[in-house]
Amino acid sequence: MTRDAAADLRSIAFCLERALEPSYRVRAFRTAAATVDRTPAAELADRARAGTLTELPGLGKVTATVVTESLTGQEPVYLRRVRTLGDRPVAEGAAALRAALKGDLHTHSDWSDGGSPIEEMARSARALGHEYVVLTDHSPRLTVARGLSPERLRQQLDVVRGLNERFAEEAEAGTAPPFRLLTGIECDIHEDGTLDQEPELLAELDVVVASVHSKLRMPSADMTPRMVAAISNPHTDVLGHCTGRFVKGYGRGGKGRPESEFEAEVVFAACARFGVAVEVNSRPERLDPPKRLLRLAVEAGCRIAIDTDAHAPGQLDWQHVGCERAHLCGVTPDRVVNTAGADELLRWTRRETA
Length: 354
Ligand SMILES: [Zn+2]
Ligand SMILES: [Zn+2]
Fold this sequence. Notes:
single chain, alpha/beta, 14 helices, binds zinc ion
């Protein structure tokens, strides 16, 4: 069976437009379709076999793959994926994803650089309908954010234990739904890829989010192994805001902050290999990873965590932003780790499940 490659490219453009994707992304598919129209069928077939389609004007890696798959008579993978975007309006798909979330894996309290006490954050998360929230205050080296020393983190674990006893009593008494405050950390990734907290403590925590906060501009040749080392650390569960970018309108002078440079295919392959979830950070200044990278992570088969990185109770409600972006990038609830209940989540972070 033969397919019309130009028609497949146009179908992709149509689905993306329907999903309100920015026009620059859509244009690439329409431009590629026009090139395919102009190119004799025999030449297309030859080039597809030889892998030289990208030499044609307007054909890039992604569009060339679409054409190649189309010429073999199969529905291009990309088309299959974007088709589902059209099944329902973006808002509805994102809402379904949001409704499936049972918790949030990345939040801060006033123990580090958050603005509110632990209890207030937890009660707000419960009021939002979450079954659990993970408290991930910063690690020691992030002194500007009052990162927690091992001693303070141990104290915090006691506080969390006490709060959980009260939440359990409230659930028992029927005055509130069952809720758990899970222990965690947003752990700095050192320049050599090691993590900024005692391994015994990391082992004790329910969830470890590992993030780069320093030397964001190091060359890709250094940043890639740095990130991969952190991802392959058996304590790491989530890779936090992977590019470290700030979008325009934020950062110094509102100019934003550029993305850190790393080999995304290598980093996401490591996440998939070591069962580490790629975080979709919902903070308005971060919106990290950018959509092209989130799509790559999805293609690499990574698990995804849709988190708020909330530093105040109201910010716990930002998850819908991440859900919208995730939905647009083909993230389905089954691969989102925080659609799991607390017990199942903990089986994953303890690597008791595949
Ligand atoms: Zn961070
Ligand atoms: Zn954070």
